[in-house]
Hints:
Domain Tetrahydrofolate dehydrogenase/cyclohydrolase catalytic: 1-83
Domain Tetrahydrofolate dehydrogenase/cyclohydrolase NAD(P)-binding: 104-251
Organism: Calcarius ornatus (Chestnut-collared longspur)
GO molecular function: ATP binding; formate-tetrahydrofolate ligase activity; methenyltetrahydrofolate cyclohydrolase activity; methylenetetrahydrofolate dehydrogenase (NADP+) activity
Number of domains: 3
Amino acid sequence: xxxxxxxxxxxxxxxxxxxxxxxxxxxxxxxxxxxxxxxxxxxxxxxxxxxxxxxxxxxxxxxxxxxxxxxxxxxxxxxxxxxxxxxxxxxxxxxxxxxxxxxxxxxxxxxxxxxxxxxxxxxxxxxxxxxxxxxxxxxxxxxxxxxxxxxxxxxxxxxxxxxxxxxxxxxxxxxxxxxxxxxxxxxxxxxxxxxxxxxxxxxxxxxxxxxxxxxxxxxxxxxxxxxxxxxxxxxxxxxxxxxxxxxxxxxxxxxxxxxxxxxxxxxxxxxxxxxxxxxxxxxxxxxxxxxxxxxxxxxxxxxxxxxxxxxxxxxxxxxxxxxxxxxxxxxxxxxxxxxxxxxxxxxxxxxxxxxxxxxxxxxxxxxxxxxxxxxxxxxxxxxxxxxxxxxxxxxxxxxxxxxxxxxxxxxxxxxxxxxxxxxxxxxxxxxxxxxxxxxxxxxxxxxxxxxxxxxxxxxxxxxxxxxxxxxxxxxxxxxxxxxxxxxxxxxxxxxxxxxxxxxxxxxxxxxxxxxxxxxxxxxxxxxxxxxxxxxxxxxxxxxxxxxxxxxxxxxxxxxxxxxxxxxxxxxxxxxxxxxxxxxxxxxxxxxxxxxxxxxxxxxxxxxxxxxxxxxxxxxxxxxxxxxxxxxxxxxxxxxxxxxxxxxxxxxxxxxxxxxxxxxxxxxxxxxxxxxxxxxxxxxxxxxxxxxxxxxxxxxxxxxxxxxxxxxxxxxxxx
Length: 718
């Protein structure tokens, strides 16, 4: 803070030393008008920045405003306080926790100088003159914990010469020129002089010279070792600052070594009979999601908290861990299911809880976000079941972080743009349309980037809006959509059967331009499928632009890019592209991201969630992802679509089967959701099970055709 000459000199020395040894260092300058709040804000930013391993606040703070120095030094995170001035580091030093703290640089440098003499500190009598927080007090503690017998002297010590005469090791930091006389010093003593004082000297150009707190010329005759002033302790202080910064970086790497997790698992109390899923979920106290993120090696600036139990993870983590090898990749699928579901999600969650909480492996589950349609229908939620659930269940099954709502908004924006464009083309001339699409602002027309792309698609290589011919203007402004070819429908994430077929455009303002349309469920939107396959925001935006929404009357495909809405879609979806972090009942991490259906899309959670999880678990960890619907649809689309886009290769398939489903495939009667099961399913019938194994056998063959081994998991219901 400010612009003191002495502070600038010290900072220059530190920056020069850092550059010499390859430490990346920079100088953050605050003006002398800076307030305490300004300084604290700057410190908070550095505390949270994982790229910074250490920082110092240069004292004194040269500000026109009152600033509490103690408050400022204690605001520095102890693990980045390479000056060792915070109360936490001082407290650890005074307790002797030398391996778990940073020692102030001057005392640390003094100690290194003493070690360099080869003299053993243990058992020696040491005297420290001065008791400042920066030198005297920490020097006393450092000598004490190196097993010296230490006396601290200060301005009120009446027998100073006598105490100095007993010292085998003398450290002086009093700030008084040549106060310690040579005759006081014990013959053979080690003398460390930390003082810097200016005394008049007419022989110098400046009229003064620098001296220490010890009368050097007389003291050097008696001491076995003595530091000069200047050039003694000063350079050592700078060297120790560099060393502490390197130590901080090493500690940081050890703490955040990829693949090395320390997780606090939740202990489950199992009850018989098993309570309902919601009772079990409510009985669990989830860890703060901030803690889960820290446990799996995410940095604070890579996590966006949405309350206490869910968070979004920044895609920047992929760049940070790009050189980290991937973990083992496991896909959970199922035999052809009954309408009641066979428990793929339950098996997925149970498997990661077993690998994590019980076998102490690094493991991540990656699951789809459920639609509210089935959640409020007969099927119910998709958080797993029993003691194998993602929690909190209601957060998981309902809004989560708003991803599905964002998809609803983005999808319906496209639908609105289609009908608005058709309306305007039917009611306006070419020139009127052109004036609206390329308006004159302050007398100047400009094409936007997306309009340039449309012109190029039409084979018009012009960038000046005034240069287009009438024919080119016509081609540019008219998409000429054939209403009968529109494939893009409006969506809603609720089952509402009366919106399956509707008539739109009945308002008088639409001038009689009505048509038949429909609402689909949100998760069936192509935008959901794009989200699940994208490998970043830019890739997602390009995919949005290519989405075909209809055909022109000439049979040409019309895309979102032609409508000019690609950028708007990307803005609406900018947060949705980040995976959502949650946890299981036993406290293992889960990514919940994207939820396309497998019968109309590819039925798998996002590529991004899998990629981030594989980096976080490290080469010996496991990522368990789930493919929707049966193996003959969800698993095959996982291999043929998701893996081919992502470039990831699964190591094993877990194939979920139930006796109930096997009996149905063996010829048992149909089962209907909400209706009691026929007796064939509640009584033993080995013949039906055996016949139904043909389905299981075929699904195993299908998986093996991709060269992936199969483990069958038989899920039992209570």
